[in-house]
Design brief:
The chain is 36% helix and 27% strand. By secondary structure, it is α/β, with parallel strands linked by helices. The longest helix has 14 residues. It is globular, with a radius of gyration of 18 Å.
């Protein structure tokens, strides 16, 4: 397995409360990895470490290392890092701008202002997020007029526009109905042809459907990481088995 990013002895605390303990997790390249576990177990905290989002919390302290292409990202420029490692949040968060300007925002911020180049980026990104056919005739309408599921795919397109290598998704379907969820899940499966996808989900059926690898976390510790089929059919750890079979607690 080739890992594109991995954590080595990763510890994280918020003030006096430790949230992650000695997490060692290699994330495979161009695969979908799911993080599962009960609420408050540290899975979203781990996800946010991978593009330094936790830097925004003043009390946060991190130890250990996170290697992306063998470079420790804890020493990297976070703005530069987020060009390579994009993030899609739990609730769709389109900017109050047109559909076009939402997608063009990132490339413009990184210095791209050529109109024909931006047009191509917008079209390619929307196609990559399986949204182009639904919005190509209203690119200059407000993104806020899209449905929730369309807004979430727009946010994925906005992430794709700066050509990342890794896409982080923090419960991307939790605010969506079943039809929109199905579209996002199909999209996630398509995205791994070109991107590494790491998803936090509270929905174990979703993890089983979309991921190649699953990591189970409990109270800030990585209990087990393995092939998704093995995690759900024959886990190595009793705690994992109790969680995936619903006998937890």
């Amino acid at each position: 397995m080739t890992s594109v990013i991995q954590t080595n002895n990763l510890n994280l605390s918020y003030g006096t409360k430790q949230a992650l303990f000695e997490v060692n997790f290699p994330f495979a390249e161009k695969k979908v990895t799911a993080l599962i576990g009960p609420s408050g177990c540290g899975k979203s905290t781990l996800l946010r470490c991978l593009n330094r989002m936790n830097d925004l919390i003043p009390t946060c302290k991190i130890g250990g290392e996170i290697l992306f292409r063998d470079e420790n990202i804890l020493n990297a420029d976070p703005v530069e890092l987020r060009k390579h490692i994009g993030m899609v949040f739990q609730r769709p968060n389109p900017f109050p701008k047109s559909i076009y300007d939402n997608i063009a925002y990132g490339p413009r911020a990184h210095g791209e202002h050529d109109a024909s180049t931006l047009d191509k980026i917008v079209e390619t990104s929307l196609k990559g997020a399986a949204l182009w056919d639904e919005v190509k005739d209203r690119l200059h309408d407000s993104a806020l007029g899209l449905s929730g599921g369309q807004q979430q795919r727009l946010c994925i397109a906005r992430t794709l526009a700066v050509s990342p290598e890794i896409i982080l998704m923090d419960e991307p379907c939790s605010a969506l109905d079943p039809i929109a969820t199905s579209k996002i899940e199909t999209l996630i499966t398509d995205l791994k042809k070109n991107y590494t996808v790491i998803i936090v989900t509270h929905n174990m059926q979703q993890a089983a459907r979309v991921s190649d690898t699953t990591g189970f976390m409990y109270i800030g510790k990585l209990v087990e990481v393995n092939d998704t089929k093995k995690i759900f059919s024959n886990p190595a750890e009793e705690l994992t088995e109790r969680y995936v079979t619903g006998r937890f607690g």
